[in-house]
Amino acid sequence: MNAATDRPLLEIERLEVQFDTRRGVVRGLRGVDLTIGRGETLAIVGESGSGKSVTAQAVMGLIDVPGRIAGGDIRWKGQSLLTRAGARMAREIRGREIALVFQDPMTSLNPLIRVGTQISEVLRRHLGLNRADADLRVLDLLEAVGIPAPPRRARQYPHELSGGMRQRVMIAMAIACQPELLIADEPTTALDVTIQAQVLELLAGLQESLGLSVLLITHDLGVVAGLCDRVAVMYAGQIVETGRAEDVFERPSHPYTQGLIRSTPRLDDQMERLIAIDGAPPNMLAPPSGCAFRDRCPIAEPRCETPPKLGPSWPEGTVACWRASTDAWAVAAEAAPGMLRVV
Ligand SMILES: Nc1ncnc2c1ncn2[C@@H]1O[C@H](COP(=O)(O)OP(=O)(O)O)[C@@H](O)[C@H]1O
Ligand SMILES: [Mg+2]
To answer: How far is ligand 2, taken at its centre, from the CA of residue 324, in Å?
Structure first.
């Protein structure tokens, strides 16, 4: 491999996003570092409000007033997407090479336009296809995302489709321009469990057949297993742990990740208990100094008042915790009764 292909497709470096609200400055992202390689599937996990969507929006250029990028950089194949001079190029990249699938297809599909026409418009706008070619390609795309009877479905309106079918239409639109990176922000949250699994399977299949890189955002660790190569765990606008998916699941290093894994309902759990991490994420108008998790952490100690940096973890990930070590899991398990609550 040469240097150009070695380089990660997407590099996010020390990214800061702030929202200037009437109540003060909300620190949405506080120095996020992330990379995604070619053909790689990365999951960002974390509780609601941790900064997952803001990260995706920043990549897509969708941070709007009152929000602003206050620092750091986002590079696509080595080129910054944030420079004024490169604004036009960044717009083109975001339309064609990076695509986004939202959580709720009902709000992103136009209810008054047939789904086939909506996909066709994307093809005509971005690829310059004529109407006849675009309409033919729509049928291929609907088939590629597993929608039966494409000619009939293409003529339907969004409300005539089930939630799962609508999400498939959104995915068809996202892959219409053959992007290299697909960002899916909680793509299955609005769907029931069986349909969720089918949509995730579709994403995995497309990832493989199209050689896509995928950034999958979810608050549900359960959907990550078996689907993603790497996991990044976010807390309070920062990445607190990254690693290969199986390492993060089997031996999470950060006490927050350990809590998240415990709170994920297991398929074999007959009781269907949901164990949550006690306490609430910090208020991002005034994020705490030091480790943001320390108020909820069962193994916090005085040095946690100094913010821990993201450093290497065993065997090949990163973690931001003073006490992280391969036996932190055992320490946390002992201290767990105070940390865990059955709801
Ligand atoms: N438009 C906005 N105005 C003010 N604060 C915002 C806005 N969008 C996001 N935030 C804040 O940024 C932080 C991260 O939000 P978000 O990325 O949406 O979280 P999630 O991980 O649930 O996707 C939260 O504290 C949220 O309140
Ligand atoms: Mg979100």
So the answer is: 27
Does ligand 1 come within 6 angstroms of the Cβ of 233?
no
Length of the chain, in residues: 343
Identify the CA nearest to 106 among candidates 175, 164, 155, 176.
Answer: 164
Evaluate: CB of 282 within 6 angstroms of ligand 1: no
pLDDT at 328: 52
Nearest bound ligand to the CA of residue 51: 1
Stretch among 67-81, 85-99, 134-148 having the lowest mean pLDDT: 85-99
Give the integer Cα–Cα distance in Å for 284 and 311: 24
- Centre of ligand 2 from the C-alpha of residue 140, in Å: 31
Report the pLDDT value the prediction gives residue 262, as an integer from 0 to 100: 82
Quick one: pLDDT at residue 315?
82
Q: Which CATH architecture has domain 3-97+179-342?
A: 3-Layer(aba) Sandwich (3.40)
Residue nearest to atom 11 of ligand 1 (CA): 28
Q: Reduce the DSSP state of residue 217 to 3 states and report it.
A: strand
Please tell me the residue having the least CA distance from ligand 1 atom 19.
49
Instruction: Please state the domain extents for the chain.
Output: 3-97+179-342, 109-178
The closest ligand to the CA of 44 turns out to be 1
By the 8 A CB rule, do 180 and 213 touch? yes
